[in-house]
UniProtKB/TrEMBL annotation:
This is 2-hydroxy-acid oxidase. Residues 1-175 form the FAD-binding PCMH-type domain. InterPro entries: FAD-bd_PCMH, FAD-bd_PCMH-like_sf, FAD-bd_PCMH_sub2, FAD-linked_Oxase-like_C, Oxid_FAD_bind_N. Keywords: FAD, Flavoprotein.
Length: 356
């Protein structure tokens, strides 16, 4: 079992990092990303909602606070996290409790990203401890060596490589009155991407567009009842060239959590690319176990264990990450230019190389 340091508060976290001489992985609830292979520092004791102003649609919360607790608090006020946090415990075969710090550190975003944006787009502020053990935040004391950086954008998706998040401020949104899902049947990947692109490019405010081969192509509309009914009718007419769009029960929790690929052996890959390239990439891979989200821009692929998927993909316009499996380098390689930028950022925030 991986050794863990569990600080009780930000001050103790800062002292732990100052006293550390070897590399540490940063861990929230351990429900997403790849499991740390060495010593880890956990934020699970840093919990609590610091500030919640429903009228201002603003939430400030400690990084180790469970996502379920946040969602329950927001639901009581008719509000929600707009970016639809995926729960990957099932497909990754993980236990644990998802934390908001882990969500922001992974920039974890579900099907609604196509309409409203990613987690980073709703992050108003961050507070974290860097590799020196210094507390850094935007809007307050800014360390000299990090002046000029957009800390929110840097920390959202940084995966614990620049510092340990201790607090995040988020914008939340009202929960819509109703949700309606339309489904098309029997489409090929090419046809599904064309239909989803037409729907997403329409003025009918589609908030989800996904394709599950053999199951259907799904489109979601949300809002006030009258508006949803009108937009659904117009969307059906728009989709007529691809068949009859039928109203079906919501499938979005399963799509969000990649549930159709759960409970099976193999390596799980996440490919981010242009929707227009999806059909060609899937044909090149030759895999049957796939699903598409974000209108085809996000492809989930289940391959036999040990498959070198990047070799099959070749010169990919996008990136492929292995979330569950055995490749020696699960993260996508960086271009020379990006690698140089990454090196500079790590030198600025973690000059001792503490964060693995």
């Amino acid at each position: 079992m991986t050794a863990q340091l569990i600080p009780r508060d930000e001050a103790e976290l800062s002292e732990m990092i100052r006293a550390t001489h070897g590399p540490l992985a940063v861990r929230g609830g351990g429900t997403r990303g790849r499991a740390p292979q060495g010593p880890a520092i956990s934020t699970t004791a840093l919990t609590g909602i610091t500030l919640y102003e429903p009228g201002a649609l603003t939430l400030v919360v400690a990084a180790g606070t469970p996502v379920a607790e946040i969602e329950a608090t927001l639901a009581a006020e008719g509000q929600r996290l707009a970016f639809e946090v995926p729960d990957l415990r099932g497909v990754l075969v993980r236990a644990g409790t998802s934390t908001i710090g882990g969500v922001v550190a992974e920039n974890a975003s579900g099907p609604r990203r196509v309409a409203v944006g990613a987690a980073r787009d709703f992050c108003l502020g961050v507070r974290f401890v860097d590799g020196r053990g210094d507390v850094v935040r935007n809007g307050g004391r800014v360390m000299k060596n990090v002046t000029g950086y957009d800390l929110v954008k840097l920390m959202s998706g940084s995966r614990g490589q620049l510092g340990v998040l201790t607090e995040v401020a988020l914008k939340v949104l009202p929960r819509p009155e109703i949700e309606l899902t339309l489904a098309l049947s029997g489409l090929s990947v090419d046809q599904a991407v064309a239909a989803m692109s037409a729907a997403l490019g329409s003025p009918f405010e589609v908030t989800g567009a996904a394709h599950l081969p053999g199951q259907g192509t799904f489109l979601r509309i949300e809002g006030f009842e009258g508006s949803v009914a009108y937009r659904a009718g117009r969307l059906r007419a728009l989709l007529a060239p691809w068949g009859e769009a039928r109203e079906v029960p919501s499938a979005w929790a399963a799509i969000r959590d990649v549930a159709p690929l759960g409970g099976r052996q193999g390596d799980l890959w996440r490919i981010s690319t242009r929707p227009s390239l999806a059909a060609g990439l899937i044909a090149r891979i030759g895999a049957d176990e796939v699903m598409l989200d974000w209108g085809g821009a996000l492809i989930w692929v289940l391959t036999p264990q040990g498959t070198d998927l990047r070799a099959k993909l070749g010169d990919l316009s996008g990136h492929a990450t292995c979330l569950r499996g055995t490749p020696p380098d699960p993260a996508p390689p960086e271009s020379p230019h990006l690698a140089e930028l990454t090196k500079g950022l790590r030198q600025a925030f973690d000059p001792r190389g503490i964060f693995a």
